[in-house]
């Protein structure tokens, strides 16, 4: 029995369709099929629904007050800027952050179930999806009893599978990433995630890694 490979695809800002990753999945499967056969398992981290209703409600409130100048530009601003603004947690509210991370955790759990609990994990992320990925993996790598970073809602979706905890992550692709700008939010530009994670050596000591 061969070892399957798990691939998570994370979209960025803006209105997204559930099939956003279909073309990429088809391309990866086509390229890899000759050497990997059916052993590449790909699933999308489709987090857009966590934000869409709030953005639609905001738009309804804005338009209910009467005619608006630059209506199309305002809608674009909501679709593209609101995701980034609303995602970051505040000291008193982290609902959007947790809602998105719950979806991320569910996707990794599904990958672990289909590809195997210890399957090598590749993540392909775009735009704000790179920030979400960085935050999600950072929380996994730095969560402690003294300083818990993973919310109970997210933890409830996770099992003990190494893949779900990011321990088998060996490939991370960040496309159109604003992470460099995001680092300005933190003193000394913050602390990057570890690629490869230290636990990867326990499962695949000879596996090549890339970010």
Brief sketch in words of this structure:
The protein is an alpha/beta fold and 211 residues long.
Structure description:
The protein is of the alpha/beta class and 211 residues long. The protein has a single domain, classed as Rossmann fold (3-Layer(aba) Sandwich), CATH 3.40.50. It contains eight helices and four strands. The protein has helices spanning 22-36, 49-63, 71-87, 95-115, 128-142, 152-155, 179-182, 200-203; strands spanning 5-10, 40-45, 121-126, 169-175. Strands 2-1-3-4 form a four-stranded parallel sheet, with helices on both faces. The protein is globular, with a radius of gyration of 18 Å.
CATH top level?
Alpha Beta
Cα gyration radius (Å): 18 Å
Q: Which architecture name does CATH use?
A: 3-Layer(aba) Sandwich
* H/I helix tally: 8
What are the secondary-structure elements, in order, as H or E? EHEHHHEHHEHH
Shape: globular
Q: Which fold does the CATH topology refer to?
A: Rossmann fold
Strand proportion, as a percent range, falls in 5-15%
Main attributes of the structure:
211 residues, alpha/beta, Rossmann fold, 8 helices
Annotate the secondary structure layout:
Layout: E1 5-10, H1 22-36, E2 40-45, H2 49-63, H3 71-87, H4 95-115, E3 121-126, H5 128-142, H6 152-155, E4 169-175, H7 179-182, H8 200-203
Parallel strand pairs: 1-2, 1-3, 3-4
């Amino acid at each position: 029995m061969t070892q399957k490979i798990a691939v998570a695809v994370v979209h960025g800002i803006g209105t997204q369709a559930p099939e956003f990753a279909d073309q990429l999945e088809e391309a990866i499967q086509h390229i890899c099929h000759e050497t990997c056969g059916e052993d590449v398992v790909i699933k999308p981290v489709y987090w857009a629904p966590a934000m869409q209703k709030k953005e639609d409600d905001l738009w309804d409130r804005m338009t209910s007050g009467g005619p608006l100048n630059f209506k199309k530009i305002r809608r674009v601003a909501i679709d593209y800027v609101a995701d980034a603004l609303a995602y970051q947690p505040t000291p008193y509210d982290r609902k959007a952050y947790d809602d998105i991370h719950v979806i991320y955790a569910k996707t990794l759990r599904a990958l672990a179930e289909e590809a195997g609990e210890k399957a090598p994990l590749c993540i392909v992320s775009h735009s704000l999806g790179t920030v979400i990925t960085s935050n999600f993996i950072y929380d996994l790598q730095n969560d402690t009893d003294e300083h818990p970073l993973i919310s109970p809602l997210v933890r409830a979706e996770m099992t003990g599978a190494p893949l779900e905890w990011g321990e088998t992550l060996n490939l991370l692709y960040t496309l159109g990433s604003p992470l460099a700008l995001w680092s300005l939010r933190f003193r000394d530009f913050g602390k990057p995630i570890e690629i490869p994670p230290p636990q990867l050596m326990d499962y695949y000591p000879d596996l090549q890694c890339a970010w």
